[in-house]
Structure formats: C-alpha cells, structure tokens
Amino acid sequence: MAAEEARRQSSLTVDTHVSLLELKPHIISLCKDLFKKWSELNQSRFSVERISGGMTNLLLKVSVEDETGNAESFAVRLYGPNTEYVINRERELLVRQI
After folding, report:
1. Cα–Cα distances in angstroms (integers) from residue 34 to residues 3, 11, 18, 25, in the given order
2. What would the pLDDT profile of 9-50 be if each residue is shown by its tens digit?
3. CA-to-CA distance for 48 and 62, rounded, in angstroms?
4. Quick one: which of 11, 51, 76, 85 has the most CB atoms within 10 Å?
C-alpha cells in the first residue's frame, strides 16, 4: 500500500453493534473509500473476519483479492462510541509511529 493512501481518512461511519453479516458491506464501503485502487472491485473480492472485540474497539481482518488473484490482508480497528473520553486517539497514533 502506498503511504499516502494509508494516511487517507474517510467520513463514513460504521455501527459496531451490528452483526458481522450486517457490518461487512459497511466495512467494504469504507475500504473502497479509503483505498482508491479497490474502489471499483466487486464486493465478492473482499472477506471480513472478526479478530477480537474489547471494551473500546472492534478488530477485524479484511482480505482483498485483486484482478490478478493476489490477496492482501490487513487489520481494521473500529473505535467504540465515546471512547475519546477515555483514550486520546491522536496520542495513541503518535505512539504507534515510534
């Protein structure tokens, strides 16, 4: 993934309280919004698995198969509602870059 794409942000929101089946199309839309190279891919090329869920977030594994059949997997973290009152997310991201 290009660094500039990895830093893109999306205005889309996702309700983390729904089932994975209901969540999947929203996660795919989010990935397509964040990564231009996937924007035209059919939803069937994406798979979404739940890795874990905690008190403050939900962690998912998203796999994408491109036109050539190569697959790429990555983690998607969805923050829970109102967690910004407990955790400083900007500081958390800065710490991860060190």
Report:
1. 12, 10, 22, 14
2. 777 777 777 888 998 999 999 899 988 888 999 999 999 999
3. 5
4. 76
Q: CATH number for the domain including 68? A: 3.30.200.20
Q: What is the pTM of this model?
A: 0.69
Domain count along the chain: 1
Please give the residue range of the domain that contains residue 77: 20-96
Q: Which amino acid is at 25?
A: P
**Cα 82 from Cα 16, distance rounded (Å):** 12
Residue 84 included in any domain: yes
